[in-house]
Amino acid sequence: MMTKNLNLYEIIDNLRLKVLAIARNISDLQNIYVENYCVGQPILFLLNIVDKIDSGQIQVINPIEYKLIQNTTTEEARLTSIERLLEKKVIAVILTDNFQLTDYELEIFKKYDVPLLSTEQNYEDFVYFLSVYLRKHLDIRLSKHGVLLEVYGEGLLLLGRSGVGKTETAIELVRRGHFLVADDCVNIRKVSLTTLIGSCPEKIRGLVEVRGVGIIDFIQIFGIKSIKKYTNIDIIVHLERADSKFNRIELKTEYEEILGIDVPSLKIPVKVERNLAIILETAALNNKLKKQGGTEYWKKIRT
Questions:
Q1: Which of 29, 121, 229, 268 could bridge across to 9 with cysteines, CB 3.0–4.6 Å?
Q2: What's the mean per-residue pLDDT of the chain?
Q3: Is 166 designated active site?
């Protein structure tokens, strides 16, 4: 597993940003950690077109768009908009193209203790560069022994002891029109605060070990369309021997943490007479329904 911590001081130092307004010692910015890969672009928020903004993002202001605000609004309205933004506790705000704000605007940043930074780079180039930089330095990943599939658009990570039937179940699901992403080794990468992506190591992509048969070339047998390079990890499914204890009805959704993200988790008993492929298809559809809020009515009529 590889994890990286990135603080705001490092970003300022490595990207050679100027500090225009700050209410603390610059060394204190080592205690402000950046965890979000995405770069915020708050112009629609400043124009009161949208009401929501991610407080965990670094915000970059396009000077061309901000000049439009300056030309069409009063200074009082601009100051109010900036205050609304800073009240969201954003990590920092960066101006590109060496753009400058008024003294009144600078004072608001000090009041709300949000660092205001500046770069001489143009807006488009800097947003792209900052996005790449954040993804590179916030890279968090691990590997798990298991099988990853995409079923009805939902990523299912199958875990369990060797011989429990993970690979055989994957083959049956692919025969039913679903997709295999990885067998045996699953690389998991955190790409945002809420999203995990799973993939297969390049050297073993498309190769599957079937007990009693050996290693098969999945692409040769089932075709290139049976394989996907990556998918989100939406559900963790533990396949366990049927002699384990299970609740017949589980109304409460269980979760399992991977890289700081809680993922819905299921335990499914394995028996000879059970069709695991159908069960996993149902689990995928049920998870999709839950994400769309479709189980709320079910809960209400039973309470």
A1: 29
A2: 86
A3: yes
